[in-house]
């Protein structure tokens, strides 16, 4: 929650203060949160540690794009982004295995403690490997007091609770409370009012705002936010409900479910490299974004044809195809913002795209949960009339088969499968909608030198 809530705040901080200093503070804050989690004596302290870690990660994410832009020329941004994306994918692949081993050998605390030596390494590399670029000759020289005055604290006080209320409503809606309940309506109303006030404040403050209007007027930034929200939504919803399919319908263990997710992540990593090399070679990022908008609907559409009677290899192959399809264009917006914005605005544009991607995942996971719960009850009742669907849902995936009699098992699993398949139409729709962002992108070459 703190990661998303402070995204615009750190976007502005990086325009005023030393990139290297703020980045180092972000790493230190993340490490402090990991230390708190490692030593937490209670759940409340553990949650505090997670919040501190999220704040630190928000600072890291907020400055990463600008740091890369400062360290590498524009023509190398695509290959650099693909390298970092591939490393992240490798982390996603190996993290469950490493985490499981740490828990088996030590305890769950080791999963957070392992961040400490890695963080120290990052601090040393950043401190000695990153060099500040001198400011432009025409840039105004501000004192620390003047810089602090330029920070939009009031805008932050509006944005943070607005995003918090939105995430809270999305998290609870359709699961803990119904969408029509006051527990959901009230946070959404408060969120809307705060965002209206935030928007008015940003308009009045102009270039000194937390989110300057000049950034939102840049069409590639808005297109990138839309595109990122759609693509991240496709990945998040597909991964979540394919895990339900593998564990609930197929009856696989959580460990095997994790292994079956690896091909999609591997496809992402390979596609990152292809798009990075390809973009660097031809100089344009939008062809790969268009390729994603064409191929992803095909992959998502084929996933809706899954059948319980078919071999699992089909599902694994389609997930690999989906990872390749999405990965080709997923990093396009990150390259685009560095091509269309001056370096001092890169962190602000990055905040918008990061916010869109994060909200895309959260929003569509919540929307899909509501659809899935509704379809699950109806599909099970159609396939096996008289079945207690509430009992099945409360039993959970791990005890699904134990909660159903053998005479109803096949029918209930068929209903479960139908509910998953119908939920997968959400990522299909998002994949189709991503074309709007791809087409709206400006045709900028990263080979041309910016004046």
Automatic annotation (TrEMBL):
InterPro entries, sorted? MFS, MFS_dom, MFS_trans_sf
MF terms from GO for this chain are: transmembrane transporter activity
Q: What is its main location?
A: membrane
Q: A Pfam family matched by this chain, by name?
A: MFS_1
Which keywords does this chain's UniProt record carry? Glycoprotein, Membrane, Transmembrane, Transmembrane helix
Membrane topology is: Multi-pass membrane protein
- Give its localization: Membrane
What does the entry list under GO cellular component?
A: plasma membrane
Designated name of the protein:
Major facilitator superfamily (MFS) profile domain-containing protein
| Annotated organism of origin | Fusarium oxysporum f. sp. pisi HDV247
């Amino acid at each position: 929650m703190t990661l998303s809530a402070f995204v615009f705040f750190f976007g502005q901080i990086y325009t005023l203060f030393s990139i290297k200093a703020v980045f180092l503070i972000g790493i230190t804050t993340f490490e402090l949160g990991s230390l708190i989690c490692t030593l937490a004596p209670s759940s409340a302290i553990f949650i505090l540690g997670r919040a501190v870690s999220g704040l630190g990660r928000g600072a890291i994410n907020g400055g990463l794009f600008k740091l890369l832009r400062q360290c590498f020329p524009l023509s190398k941004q695509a290959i650099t982004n693909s390298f970092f994306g591939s490393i992240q994918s490798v982390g996603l692949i190996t993290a469950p295995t490493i985490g499981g081993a740490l828990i088996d050998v030590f305890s769950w605390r080791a999963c957070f403690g392992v961040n400490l030596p890695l963080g120290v390494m990052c601090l040393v590399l950043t401190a000695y490997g990153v060099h500040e670029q001198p400011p432009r000759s025409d840039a105004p020289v501000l004192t620390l007091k003047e810089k602090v005055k330029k920070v939009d604290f009031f805008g932050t006080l509006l944005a943070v609770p607005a995003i918090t209320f939105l995430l809270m409503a999305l998290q609870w809606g359709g699961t803990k409370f119904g969408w029509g309940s006051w527990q959901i309506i009230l946070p959404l109303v408060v969120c809307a009012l705060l965002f209206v006030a935030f928007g008015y404040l940003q308009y009045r403050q102009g270039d000194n705002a937390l989110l300057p209007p000049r950034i939102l007027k840049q069409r590639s930034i808005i297109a990138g936010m839309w595109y990122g929200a759609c693509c991240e939504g496709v990945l998040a919803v597909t991964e979540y409900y394919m895990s339900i399919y593998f564990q609930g319908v197929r009856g696989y263990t959580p460990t095997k479910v994790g292994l079956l997710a690896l091909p999609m992540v591997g496809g992402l990593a390979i596609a990152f490299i292809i798009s990075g090399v390809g973009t660097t070679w031809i100089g344009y990022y939008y062809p790969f974004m268009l390729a994603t908008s064409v191929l992803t609907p095909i992959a998502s559409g084929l996933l809706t044809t899954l059948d319980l009677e078919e071999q699992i290899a089909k599902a694994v192959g389609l997930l690999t195809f989906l990872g390749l399809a999405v990965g080709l264009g997923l990093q396009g917006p990150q390259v685009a913002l560095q091509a269309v914005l001056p370096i001092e605005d890169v962190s602000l544009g990055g905040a918008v795209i990061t916010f869109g991607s994060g909200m895309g995942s959260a929003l569509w996971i919540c929307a899909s949960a509501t659809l899935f719960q509704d379809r699950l009850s109806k599909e099970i009742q159609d396939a096996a009339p008289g079945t207690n669907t509430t009992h099945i849902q409360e039993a959970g995936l791990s005890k699904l088969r134990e909660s159903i009699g053998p005479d109803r098992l096949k029918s209930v699993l068929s209903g479960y499968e139908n509910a998953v398949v119908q939920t997968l139409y959400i990522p299909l729709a998002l994949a189709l909608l991503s074309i709007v962002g791809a087409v709206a992108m400006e045709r900028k070459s990263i080979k041309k030198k910016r004046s």
